[in-house]
Amino acid sequence: MYSLVGDEAEDNMPPARYIQLTATQKGALKQLYRSTDDADVRSRCQMILLSAQGHSTVELAKLTFFDQDTILFWFDRYEAEGLAGLQDRPRSGRPPKITGPSRDDLQQAADQDPRQTGQSFSVWTCKDLARHLAERGHSLVAGETIRRHLRVLGFRIVRPVLSISSPDPDYAMKVERLERLKAQARCGEIVLLYEDEVDLNLLPGIIGCWTRRGQQRKVPTPGQNQKRYGFGVVNFTTGEITRLIGERKDSDHFCAFVEQVVRQYCPGEVWDGPKVALVVDNYIIHHSKKTLAVLGRYADRLAAVPLPTYSPKLNVIELLWKHLRRKVTHNHLFQSIGALVEAVEAFFARLDSHPAEVLSVIGCSE
Fold first, then answer.
1. Average pLDDT of the residues in 175-183
2. Most buried among 14, 106, 254, 269, using CB within 10 Å?
3. How far apart are CA 226 and CA 338, in angstroms?
């Protein structure tokens, strides 16, 4: 692989060495040079390729800023091992400071609320975890060491979400009833509607959006906030949406909305079609005297089905409201409350033509 040219060397220097490569070897070196992410490996490929073009080690030292001994070392490694010889050998380095029992204790602590371990604070820091391990008899390590090992163990800084648990003693019974109603709706025995209200604020909500690095988008706020209130139902099986927007969220508006639902799904003096199950939460207007009177008037065709207390995840229309906020009300200040209402109506008008999208949003698509 090497050719020796003695007449090019001075008396006190070894003969110049050049590498001769086959076409296959050149192709492999060029491929490694282009594909590797390791700058050192790329330099080693370059040395060998330049040598094959006739550059001496003296010239290579000037071109690559490596000394001749280093260049000759990689020549020898390439001759002995081929492309694999251009890679760095695995280095032993210092042994990890957190292993075995200390790693297990770290993982167990990070998975817990600090107060569950007897601490007087509610959020772990890396220094707190290091101190906790030391208290359990392990070696004291730096906070940055803890941070590095947490990442290896799969931990990341993620904002938690608030969790609501229902105190309703009849929670299981109400959930079971809801599942039966779903099965009946799928068979066409009943019409299952999920109802809820949504606040429409002129003051926009804020969510993350694409922004140039180093900049922060500014969303203007109104001089005075104004509100409207949306009443809505979504059909569990068809994705059809019925809505009403009013100035107040009270029993009068809810009763007017119930009348609208009856006209749409079960009109007439006498009804012999499938009964409508109207799933509602426990907001006061859903069981006020006025509301009970209206519901009683249509008891032959419509029945309110109360959800367990504090169980918004069971009401699929909540997902539709979330979709509405993300698409319409967030990150944009409308010039008037009328313009906001108009945008909301346009949003629902588009969804009226895309019931499959609605079903997908609320998680009820087949």
1. 97
2. 254
3. 10
Q: Do the bridges between strand 275-280 and strand 302-306 make them parallel or antiparallel, or are there none, so unpaired?
A: parallel
Which residues partner with 296 through β-bridges? none
234, 193 contact by CB (below 8 A):
yes
- What pLDDT is attached to residue 38? 86
CA 108 – CA 58 distance, rounded (Å)? 58
Region of poorest pLDDT, from 78-82, 96-100, 190-194: 96-100
Residue 302 in tokens:
């419509």
Length of the chain in terms of residues written: 366
What are the b/e assignments for 139-170, b being 16+ CB within 10 Å? eebeeebbbbbbeeeeeeeeeeeeeeebebee
2 pLDDT higher than 70: no
Q: Tokens 């608030």 label which residue?
A: 162
CA 366/CA 359 separation, integer angstroms: 9
What is the tens place of the pLDDT at every residue in 245-286? 999 999 999 999 999 999 999 999 889 999 999 999 999 999
Q: Is 122 helix (H, G, I), strand (E, B) or coil?
A: coil
Closest-CA residue to 99 (of 132, 71, 74, 133)? 133
Provide the percentage of residues in the chain whose pLDDT is more than 90: 77
Tokens 């109802």 sit at which residue? 195
171-361 CATH, one of 3.30.420.10, 3.30.450.20, 3.30.565.10, 3.40.630.30: 3.30.420.10
Higher-pLDDT residue of 37 and 291 is: 291
Q: Which two tokens stand for residue 290?
A: 């006025």
Among 3-7, 56-60, 291-295, 302-306, which is the least confidently predicted range? 3-7
Q: pTM score > 0.70 for this model?
A: no
Nearest of 208, 269, 201, 187 to residue 230 by alpha carbon: 201
Distance in angstroms (rounded) separating the CA atoms of residues 250 and 207: 29
Which 3 state secondary structure label does DSSP give 330?
strand
- Cβ–Cβ under 8 Å, residues 23 and 15: no
CA dist 265 and 274 (Å) reads 9
For residue 193, the model assigns a pLDDT of 98
Helix ranges (H only) for the chain are: 23-35, 39-52, 57-64, 68-81, 100-110, 126-135, 143-152, 171-186, 251-265, 289-297, 317-324, 337-352, 355-361
